[in-house]
Amino acid sequence: MKYSVEVLIEKPRDEVVKKMDNVDNMKHWQKGLVSSEHISGTPGKVGAKMQLNYKMGKREMALVETITKNNFPEEFSATYHTKGMHNIQENYFKETPEGHTKWISNCEFQPSGFMMKAMTLLMPGAFKKQSKKYMVDFKNFVEKGTSVANE
User: Fold this and answer.
1) Fewest Cβ atoms closer than 10 Å to its Cβ: which of 15, 16, 40, 58?
2) How far apart are CA 60 and CA 15, in angstroms?
3) Under 8 Å CB-to-CB from 96, ≥6 apart: which residues?
4) What is the pTM of this model?
């Protein structure tokens, strides 16, 4: 399953990328993120791996992020792997004539188990909605300093 989502952030690209490229900021825009742990490689560099631990209600989930491209300020791509699902994310940051930043995220979900395959077929909108929510929460964090960490 593939889709693209985008959001316009009314801040300069350098400011947007600086906040995006700081692991400590993730908790402010990724609701449910409990912790992150560096696994291998040089942090921020291609090939680096990090485990991200989430708690959503009573459900706990661990993802392993592997950086596949770090060409900030233009592009950042990574894969995310968890039981039953492999996710490829390509993120592009474009400067607008107004000095703002358009963030475009191309997402691909590759389910490996029956339940995850069924979810991508029956509820594709839920994946896109969650991606957009993270992007809007990031936009609010950058523009207004709003954090989802205490919600």
Assistant:
1) 58
2) 32
3) 8, 102
4) 0.92
